[in-house]
Amino acid sequence: MSNFISQASYKLFKTAAFQLDPEFVHEHSMGFLSKFPGLSSKIFGENDLGTRYTLNIGGNSWPFPIGLAAGLDKNAMAIDFFSKLPLGSVEVGTVTPKPQAGNDKPRLFRIVEEESLRNRMGFNNDGADVLLERIKRSQKNGRVLGVNLGKNKTTPADKACDDYATLYKKFASDCDYLVINVSSPNTPGLRDLQGEEEMDRIFDALAPLRTEKPRPLYLKIAPDLSDEGILSLVEISKKHNLTGLIATNTTIMEERGPGGVSGKLLAQKGREVRFKILEALKETPDIDLIGVGGVSSSQDLFDFWKAGGNLMQVYSAFIFQGPALLQGIFQDVEKLLQRNDSDSLSQLLENRDKIDWL
């Protein structure tokens, strides 16, 4: 009954919300959810995940293998709400050292018929100090909390390392992992920082801070890189002992307009990039990959597992499908455990070559 209620409630909300400007809906939804975090339990039901689905990856215990990607709760307003859903993690941001207005509006667009979004937001956020205070007040409810870090638009490229160092130092004590974001297409010159020299400069600046305040550290990459560029970032992650990579950010589709596209239009490209990375990481099992970009079903998760991955994130599909997405994945993971007579997900994935897939 709770599944039916949550899906019906979301269908009503979506019908009304999709008549309005996407960013207006997003901002007011986050504001509402920040005031009524207990609404998640009333609509979605209780989601005490226990330990059955826990995966210990990258120094953190994810109570479920699906997390919320950065961008949805960019200002860390609704952590208490999202941490009560069947999610293993919540990643907030992208946050910059100083508050930032972002690009001119309109800058968020729905592509409804293809369950995709296009955004040219430009790292609009309330700034590091405000986000830190919200994080300190939040109740994570056993979920892993990540913070996605970006540079201010006015910071020159050769000083980007200073912004990332400032943010690492500020958030390291109050989150479970950090993400270096140099892959958004909406900040001029940001993707240029994915070059080897620029990456070395950033991670060299972070090295003493990582020694002082160790925290799992990921690099989020673009899906529009060449094969050589992808392999270069894999090698950089090894060189600097990163916890892992997150693939992928939004993709550029000039025929759709300026900005980055997410959702089903990104699915195939994101999948191809992730599989290339997983292949390149086979000899380096200590470096993990969090998969994101066009993830919209349990089949996407199972295919990722078959290729050697562990954890994935969702964003656009959650906007279009609502609770049905998370509940469907949760139910299918449970069916997979039962089908294989397994007591835990970690146990199941230890012998994934023997799994009887759904």
Provide a descriptive summary of the structure in words.
With 358 residues, the chain is an alpha/beta fold. It has a single domain, classed as Aldolase class I (TIM Barrel, Alpha-Beta Barrel). It is 41% helix and 16% strand. It is built from 13 helices and 13 strands. The chain has helices at residues 2-17, 22-35, 39-44, 79-82, 128-137, 160-171, 196-212, 227-239, 264-280, 298-306, 316-321, 323-339, 345-350; strands at 55-57, 60-62, 66-68, 89-95, 108-111, 116-119, 144-149, 177-181, 217-221, 244-247, 260-263, 288-291, 311-314. Strand 9, helix 8 and strand 10 form a beta-alpha-beta unit. Helix 6 (160-171) runs parallel beside helix 7 and helix 8 (227-239) packs across helix 9.
The number of helices is: 13
Q: How many domains make up the coordinates?
A: 1
Instruction: Give the amount of beta strand, in percent.
Output: 15-25%
Order of helices and strands: HHHEEEHEEEHEHEHEHEEHEHEHHH
What is the C-alpha radius of gyration, as a whole number of Å?
A: 19 Å
For the biggest sheet, the summary is: 8 strands, parallel, barrel
CA distance, first residue to last residue: 25 Å
- Please name the CATH topology: TIM Barrel
Helix content: 40-55%
CATH-derived architecture: Alpha-Beta Barrel
SSE class? alpha/beta
Could you tell me the number of beta strands? 13
Which strands sit side by side, in order, in the main sheet? Answer: 3-4-7-8-9-10-12-13
Globally, the shape reads: globular
Name the CATH class. Alpha Beta
Overall pLDDT level? 93
Unreliable runs: none
